[in-house]
Amino acid sequence: MKKMYKLYFFNDFESVTDEILASFCSILPVERQERIKRYRRQIDKKISAVSYIILLYALAKDYGIKYPDISIGTHGKPYLADYPDIHFNISHCVKGCVCAVSDVPIGVDIQEIRPYSSEITERVCSAEEMEIINNASDKACEFTRIWTMKESYVKMTGEGISDKLKYIDISNLAKQIKLYERNNCFISVCI
Amino acid sequence: MIDKIIEILSEFTELSTEEMNENTELVNDMGLNSLDVVNVIVAFEDEFNIEIPDRIIKDLRTIGDISKYIEENV
Fold first, then answer.
1. pTM (2 decimals)?
2. E strands along A64-145, which residues?
3. Which of A63, A96, A152, B38 could cross-link A109 (Cys pair, CB 3.0–4.6 Å)?
4. Tens digit of pLDDT for each residue in B19-48?
């Protein structure tokens, strides 16, 4: 049976005025409001608010859930204790935030393409992945693609990283992962 | 130790060093995403000549957590 999911993406942070941000914050849980207040940069406040808002939007629109009670699992993955069959995951970078909802465990990661670092690549990539990156015409792009795929897998399992990131070889996982590109970012969804 | 950690972290954030203390959280206060955290961890590994296993990373939530880990493992 085909696994279904929906993906919500938002990147127009400039359109989020101070008034809109304030109205978003007014419907967020207190802990989230407190976290947003602690951020110094306006962009971080906006990203944090919008990430939660699109989750609320998705849950209301797709499942009719208006006031979700979000719990945090042992390894830090948020979930809905009252709705064990509804799964979601959120990710953000400065260029956008994304929310995935599904009836199966799901992980999503968004990452803007950043300058290539051989040190970071060697730290987190398997030998096979490093070969793919080294052979690529755009290493920064290729690394980011592979990174989001790994991250989306780790976030799907919700187990955290139990072993070295290097041992997660995405070429084995490619069937479970869909890749999107938006706004010079890669978005990976793993189910 | 904490001062050195804050100095390294200040390169990854717009927070000033005065605004950071041992309770500052990397993700929740500094807004670091997953790749930022890897960059931060690698920076500490290089600075303190230490290896930080990937499975520990999620437990290092605050500057204090990092400081404690480095002190115990350096």
1. 0.91
2. 70-72, 78-80, 87-93, 96-102, 107-112
3. A152
4. 899 999 988 888 888 899 999 999 999 999
Q: Flag whether residue A28 sits within 8 Å of chain B, measured between CB atoms.
A: no
> Within a 10 A sphere around the Cβ of A191, how many other Cβ atoms?
22
Whether the CB-CB separation of A10 and A94 falls below 8 Å is answered with no
**Contact flag A41-B57 (C-beta cutoff 8 Å):** no
Tell whether A161 lies on the interface with B, counting CB pairs under 8 A. Answer: yes
Distance, C-alpha A163 to centroid of its chain: 20
**Contact criterion met (CB below 8 Å) for A27 and A21:** no
Q: What is the ipTM of this complex?
A: 0.86
**What pLDDT sits at residue B16?**
84
Does B49 touch chain A if contact means CB atoms closer than 8 Å? no
Reported as a single tens digit per residue, the pLDDT across A143-189 is 999 999 999 999 999 887 767 888 888 888 888 899 999 989 999 99
Distance of CA A48 to the CA centre of its chain: 12
What pLDDT is stored for residue A42 in this prediction? Answer: 92
Amino acid at A91: S
